[in-house]
Design goal:
The complex is a heterodimer.
Chain A: H1 3-24, H2 32-37, H3 41-55, H4 68-83, H5 86-103
Helix pairs in contact in A: 4-5
Chain B: H1 2-37, H2 42-51, H3 55-66, H4 71-81, H5 84-96, H6 101-109, H7 113-124, H8 133-157, H9 170-179, H10 186-201, H11 209-227
Helix pairs in contact in B: 1-3, 1-7, 1-8, 2-8, 3-4, 5-7, 7-8, 7-9, 10-11
C-alpha cells in the first residue's frame, strides 16, 4: 500500500472512532446502564494512564520510595485534592520531581 | 452578549489547555524528529500530524513505516491504539447533542486525550451554558496548533531535545489535577482505583489494549458499586 493511502485511511479510522458516539447518539436508543456508565469514563481512562506512568517510569515496575516519579505523583495527588487547582498541581509535582531526583541522586 | 459569552468560553478553553502544552510540545518535537529519522519525507511527517492527529498512534505508525511493516498491519495498530477515543466520544456525546453536523464533525476531529481531559472536566462542572462547545473548540484548537507547530520544529531541529528534561511528566500531573477533584463518591473512587490497578498490571499489553481493558473494567466496577444498595 502506498504511504499516503495508509495515512489517509489511518486518519479516517481515527476520525470515525472519535465521531462514533457523537454521531450515533441521536440515531440509536441508548440503554440506561450505558448512560450511567459515562460518568466513570474520565476517572477510569485517566487513572489507567496515570498509575503506570508513576509506578513504571521506565517501562518496568518500580514500586519503591526511591522512585521519584511515584513520590512526586503522591505530592501532586495531595495538592490536587487540597487545592483543586491544575496549575498549582503541575508546579508542585514538577518541583517535587526535581527535588526527589536530586535527593535520590538520579 | 451572546458573542461575548462565546468568546469567554473559547478563551477559558484556551487558558485551561495551555498548561498541558508543556507536556505535549516535547512530545511533538520528538515525533517530528523520529519521523524524519525513519525516512518519512518532511511533507509526510507534517501531514501525519494533521491527518491522523493522535500522538501515540503517530509514534507507532512512524516506527512501523520505518520497519517496513505492511499497510494493513499499520492500519490495524492505529485503529486499536485509538479505540479509547470511542469512549471519549460516548462521554461527550450528550453534551454536543444539540449541535449541528458541522460542529460535530469539527469537534470530533479535535477530540484528543488532552482536549477531552479538560473539556469533560468543564462539562461536568456546575452550570449549564449552551455555549460550552466554544470551550471545547478553544481547548481543541490550542492543542492542534501546538501539535502542528511542535511537529514542524521537531522536523527542523531533529533529535536535539535534551532527554534529561522531565517535561513529559507534565502530562500525568495534568491528568492527576483533573481526576482527583472529580472523585466525589465511592463508585467514582473505585472506578479510578480499579482502572489504575488493571492499567498497571496490563501495561505491557500490545498497542494500548491494556489501557482499554483497564478503562472498561474500571467503568464496570463503578457501575456495580453505584448499583448496590447503600
Amino acid at each position: 500500500m502506498n504511504l499516503w493511502v495508509v495515512m489517509i485511511i489511518g486518519g479516517l479510522l481515527t476520525f470515525a472512532t472519535r465521531l462514533s458516539f457523537i454521531f450515533l447518539l441521536d440515531r440509536i436508543q441508548v440503554p440506561d446502564w450505558f448512560r450511567r456508565s459515562l460518568r466513570f469514563v474520565p476517572a477510569a481512562v485517566l487513572s489507567a494512564i496515570i498509575l503506570p506512568e508513576l509506578t513504571s517510569p521506565n517501562g518496568t515496575l518500580f514500586l519503591s520510595w526511591r522512585n521519584p516519579q511515584l513520590l512526586a505523583g503522591a505530592v501532586a495527588i495531595l495538592v490536587a485534592w487540597k487545592t483543586r487547582n491544575v496549575l498549582l498541581t503541575i508546579l508542585a509535582g514538577m518541583a517535587a520531581l526535581v527535588v526527589f531526583q536530586v535527593v535520590l541522586g538520579f | 452578549m451572546i458573542v461575548k459569552l462565546r468568546q469567554q468560553e473559547f478563551w477559558s478553553g484556551v487558558r485551561d489547555e495551555a498548561p498541558i502544552l508543556l507536556g505535549v510540545v516535547p512530545f511533538g518535537l520528538l515525533f517530528g524528529a523520529l519521523a524524519i529519522s525513519t525516512h518519512l519525507s518532511t511533507l509526510a511527517a507534517q501531514a501525519m500530524s494533521s491527518i491522523i492527529f493522535a500522538g501515540s498512534a503517530q509514534f507507532i505508525a512512524a516506527q512501523l513505516i520505518g520497519a517496513g511493516s505492511s499497510g494493513l498491519v499499520i492500519l490495524m495498530v492505529v485503529f486499536v491504539v485509538n479505540l479509547r477515543h470511542a469512549l471519549y466520544s460516548a462521554s461527550v456525546a450528550p453534551h454536543v447533542r444539540h449541535l449541528g453536523t458541522g460542529w460535530k464533525l469539527l469537534l470530533s476531529y479535535l477530540l484528543t486525550d488532552e482536549a477531552y481531559a479538560v473539556t469533560i472536566t468543564h462539562y461536568n462542572r456546575e452550570g449549564d451554558s449552551p455555549d460550552r462547545h466554544w470551550y471545547f473548540l478553544g481547548a481543541g484548537l490550542t492543542l492542534w496548533s501546538a501539535w502542528q507547530a511542535s511537529t514542524a520544529v521537531g522536523i527542523f531541529i531533529g533529535a536535539q531535545i535534551p532527554a534529561s528534561w522531565p517535561l513529559g511528566f507534565v502530562l500525568p500531573l495534568t491528568f492527576i489535577a483533573l481526576v482527583v477533584p472529580a472523585l466525589k463518591d465511592r463508585a467514582g473512587v473505585a472506578a479510578a482505583l480499579v482502572a489504575g490497578l488493571v492499567g498497571l498490571l496490563a501495561a505491557n499489553f500490545p498497542y494500548k489494549t491494556g489501557l482499554l481493558l483497564a478503562a472498561l473494567i474500571g467503568i464496570i466496577t463503578g457501575l456495580v458499586i453505584e448499583g448496590r444498595p447503600k
